[in-house]
Structures are given as structure tokens and as C-alpha cells.
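Hi R.,

Here's the chain you asked about this morning:
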Amino acid sequence: MASERRRAVVLSSGGLDSTTALAIARAEGFDCYALTIDYGQRHRLEVEAARRVAEALGAREHALIAVDLRRFGGSALTADLPLPIDRKPDTMTDIPITYVPARNTVFLALALAWAETVGAQDIFIGANVLDSSGYPDCRPEYLEAFERMATLATRAGVEGTSRFRIRAPLITLTKADIVRRAMELGVDLSLTWSCYDPQPGPRPCGGCDSCVLRRKGFAEAGVADPALPD
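And here is the predicted structure, written out as C-alpha cells:
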């Protein structure tokens, strides 16, 4: 009898980075459990994109969990606050108003709970420090600290039946590198959505930080973005 494939939980937002992380996990031979969090973000297009991506990339399961962070606000993604527009990538070194308080900690905690339940030791996240708009919960030291905590906070970790690993395969890649890696893996990037402030159509706004960084990545990779309307 063939041995069962390793399992991984992959945080999937439907964006470029998390989609590439899911494709990498699949390429490494994992059965992927894609986890999408509906946290009360400004629009649901990324949730719909995550569904498309999970299906296209053959996730074994796709879970959608609602955790309404609008109750706390504190971010332009969860409250009625203006988005930064047309910032230059080389100025994105501060922590912007699009930072959602403790978002990755909430997301990783949910991913950890599912991983322990299904017997997965690997949790993939599309965190990136080079083109990440200065988010503190995308840093390697944060992810390393969460990985240590995962062992202390779970039955599987304390009893030694699992050693959880937080996998961030894009952590030191540029957006152009991420685009190239996704294309090498045959990912259909037209399925993804990155924009914080979609316009009628729907079409990307082109000016939010996420759009600016995505446009920069495709331009530097020398390829057209298939998600843009003709």
C-alpha cells in the first residue's frame, strides 16, 4: 500500500503571493488544505478568487472561516478609513493604515488548529518582506516566534507527535521573483485578485499599495498581468 501523502495547511487569500505559496506546497508533494479567512475586508472579490484558486490548484479541502475583524477596526481594510493611493514602492517602509491589527496571528492560529486536527505539520503562508508594505507580521523573526509558540501551545507539540513548521517560501523574494515562480509552476494568475479597492467591472483600482506592488512585479518580470482587463 502506498504511504499517505504529507498534509499541509495553506493560508489562501486569493492573491498572488498566497496562490504561489499554494502552488509551491503542491509541487513539494503535499495534500493541501486551503484556508481562507473572511475577516470583514472591504470586498469579497478576494474570497471568490480564493475559491477559484483552491479548485484550480487541486486543494484537498478548502475551508472558509468568518472572523469579523470589523468589530475592532483599526485598519483601512476593516474600517471606513482612506486607503493610501499612488505611493511609490521605495517609500513603503512604514507600517501603513492597511495593516490589520494582529491579522496574521489570528490567521496562523486558525491554521494551526486545523493542522493539528488533520495531522499536518506544515503551515504555508505567502508572507514576504521585500515587497510587503512594511507589515510587522510578515517578518521572519515573527514567523519563527510563532513556530516556537505552536509547539508550546498544542497537544501534538507537547506530546511530541508533531513538530509544526511555518513555511514562508516567498519570504525573501521580490514580487517579480514571485511572478516568475508562479509561472514556472504553471499557475493561472488570471484567477488571482490583489486590489484593495476594486472599481466597477470589477477591475483593479491601480493605485492602492497592493496594485502598485503587483504592477511593479509583473513589469520587472517582463510579462503582462493576465488579471487586468483588456
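One quick note: The chain has one domain: 7-221.

Cheers,
M.
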